[in-house]
Amino acid sequence: xxxxxxxxxxxxxxxxxxxxxxxxxxxxxxxxxxxxxxxxxxxxxxxxxxxxxxxxxxxxxxxxxxxxxxxxxxxxxxxxxxxxxxxxxxxxxxxxxxxxxxxxxxxxxxxxxxxxxxxxxxxxxxxxxxxxxxxxxxxxxxxxxxxxxxxxxxxxxxxxxxxxxxxxxxxxxxxxxxxxxxxxxxxxxxxxxxxxxxxxxxxxxxxxxxxxxxxxxxxxxxxxxxxxxxxxxxxxxxxxxxxxxxxxxxxxxxxxxxxxxxxxxxxxxxxxxxxxxxxxxxxxxxxxxxxxxxxxxxxxxxxxxxxxxxxxxxxxxxxxxxxxxxxxxxxxxxxxxxxxxxxxxxxxxxxxxxxxxxxxxxxxxxxxxxxxxxxxxxxxxxxxxxxxxxxxxxxxxxxxxxxxxxxxxxxxxxxxxxxxxxxxxxxxxxxxxxxxxxxxxxxxxxxxxxxxxxxxxxxxxxxxxxxxxxxxxxxxxxxxxxx
Length: 483
Known about the structure:
- With about 475 residues, this protein is α+β, with helices and mostly antiparallel strands.
- It has 10 helices and 10 strands.
- It has a 4-stranded antiparallel beta sheet with strand order 2-3-5-10. Strands 1-4 form a two-stranded parallel ribbon. Strands 6-9 form a two-stranded antiparallel sheet.
- The protein starts with a helix and ends in an 11-residue tail after the last helix.
- The relative contact order is 0.14.
């Protein structure tokens, strides 16, 4: 059942990758993988969009220094009982009006909130840049880890195939010896089981290799990864002699170069600016304004008057003593069409300008709460910076200890392999002359295979631990990330 499980996974992955033994695949280097990931990884693209958003916020903050200019225009119809602006009387009529206006306002003083908001926006851009660099560094580490895992699985598969080849030759030779009556037939059964186990181990190793390739291909966001492969002769050594440094020296260097500390420090400065901005709301606001407006009417206007011939006079009183009537001439209004609209706009225009002072007195503790909230965020930023420093110190010492232990483990595994190889050679000599049975020889062979696998594992573990330690010392995975 276990063999069937591994075989099904291998078949599924083979179909997924569409591997062809006749196709020549491109072999990627570690630097090519990192470069491609930095250009195409989705997480990095999202972080780049955050940087663009921060740049837009800076433009918005700069716009707070500029005047606010607004223009307006309207045209209205009044239907029904309305006051006739010509006669001053209420009449059932339909009138039309057009009006045009413009307003300009600018803040002269706002508690320095605009200045501090602009400074905070510039800090936000710096923080977004640090966040982008940190994301690039994290992706580079992940790519390096996945890359080395492929190399490790490749070497492991190579060892398993070489072991299968050796066991198949032993099986063929043992069949000849059984036919010749040199060894018992039971030894032949043990060898057949060993060959079957080798094939099962190869299936498992092929699965591991395909899965590791798929993991790296997905990390690179490759659209076509059917023939994805990496170059085999990648060597990562302690060429910078990083283990010659002390942990405190690496930590001091990391405090100067690590992006997470720079990001935490910038976030602290942003929080300080936020407190200053919130306190600025306690201060008065002085602004200047200018308003312009004009209007035009489409109603008839009085252009003159003429004597009312039907009723030329009206008595308005009499002379005391003589009772002589006092008369007044009656005139009729002469109406004409409205003046040209642009003439009306010119005649009816009006302007106003001035200064406006607003002094905050009480707003339901809103300003006070904003200040307190900003202070809380500031304290959180201080604690975060301190925590980042502690985390960095712990990570550096852990990375140094891990790298040193990985080196010792690799060296010990190498010594063990040499001893297991000698033991295997001695067992083979005894087995060839019939002084060792098949079971004991298989045990010696298994111990050799395990030693070979352990050397492979410890070698690539050491290589990755060295890259992590160099990473904290300010040496990038590949020299392509710019801070």
